[in-house]
Amino acid sequence: MTPSNISKYLINRFFILLLLSSTIVFGQDKIDNKEEAKAEKTISPSDTIPYKYGLRIGIDLGGPISMLIDSDHKLFKGNFDARVYKKYFVSGEMGYELYKYKTENLNYTTDGSFIMLGGDYDMLGYTPGRNDLLAFGVRYGLAKFSQTVDEYKIQNGYWLDDTFISNIEVQEAYAHWINLRIGLKVEVLHNFYLGFSGGVNFLFLDTNLDNFDNLYIPGFGENRNNKSWVFNYTVMYLLPFN
Amino acid sequence: MIKKLSLTFFLGIMLLLSGCESTGICTEPVTPKLMIGFSDFDNLGNPEDIDPPSDLKIYGTKDGTDIGTSNEENFIFPGLTQTDENKRIALIFDVNRDSLTYIFKFEGDIFDTLRINYIRENRYINKNCGYKTVFQQVELDYYSTNAIDSIILLTENIEYDTEQHIKIFNK
User: Fold this and answer.
1) What is the residue extent of each domain of chain B?
2) What is the pLDDT of residue B49?
3) Are B93 and B34 in contact (CB under 8 A)?
4) Where are the beta strands (DSSP E) in chain A?
5) What interface predicted TM-score (ipTM) does this complex get?
6) Topology at the third CATH level for domain A43-240
7) φ, ψ for residue A232 (rounded to 5)?
8) pLDDT tens-digit profile of B55-87?
9) Which residue among A35, A103, A182 sits closest to B10, beta carbon to beta carbon?
10) Residues of A with CB below 8 A from B22's CB?
11) Are A159 and B6 a contacting pair at CB < 8 A?
């Protein structure tokens, strides 16, 4: 085995492990093993088709659109994917996000960068010569950011000066999460792809702040009970390898 | 098989998570009020709460720290007299000072002053409620005894207004 074959093999095993772990939830791992064994014996048509390999890089369109709507929200995000073995892709994204929240009693700013790495499994089935996919994806996400309570107000209406106003200095924080998603990528021009994906994030570790919470996390979004929804619109370009 | 299962798994999670959006309304207790109960001095051994004296009005002063004034021009109107179902009067804390001064106006224009001192701490609650102030190391700083006989402080830390914090015994 050449080094590249070994890495393909390892990544492939990793994917099967990830997907199997999801099937265990339904208690159907035994059935699944049988089916897989059967599938390995028969030669499927896709084995004979030359897969199109390449590195696909893209930028997120949602960020610039949200900046047009809300100038206090800045989001720049890039992404990539690359087929490593048949229907399996490594994929990820990284970016920078600045988010300001303003209400009567609480104004805060979240500012930082993030990276997400993982893989996609193509459920669409392969079309020769194309890299379209309908993918189930898993990512690990990491963000390094700062949280600042720019102003908070405590109003206690009776006294003539009945409003207390203060702020909390900038605090540095980290957050770690798992992202599950379903995404569609379609070639619209030669080697140009449009992508849409939707998914959910599960926050499993974040820095405890002094007298505040990580209400918003770059790349993760609005933190609701350690979960958030994410939607991505991307335009991508494929650098073909073969 | 993998295809079907991963799709089922994903949709299952989506379904599990839907319907748990927050509403944007603050439902947690915010900055507490000072809860005052009244008792009868003649019944010290068994200080059961009684109704606050009739015609009692309680005022903060515009300056916020006046002691012993009976000049109504100094008062913030309206005076606080609302009692709750437990016969308590709730006084609003001053969140900009480390002391709280109120003037009590009893029947027959008899005035008394109460002042307590405390250390303020501003505590994060959640996104919808923001912050609240809690009051620690509460102490009775001053009170006059024209209509009031004595005052007892029941707690040194005031974080919620579900309990009585101060008991006043009238003459």
Assistant:
1) 23-170
2) 80
3) yes
4) 54-60, 73-85, 88-102, 106-122, 133-155, 163-189, 192-206, 216-217, 221-222, 227-240
5) 0.79
6) Porin (2.40.160)
7) -125, 135
8) 888 998 888 888 877 788 888 877 777 777 778
9) A182
10) 224
11) no
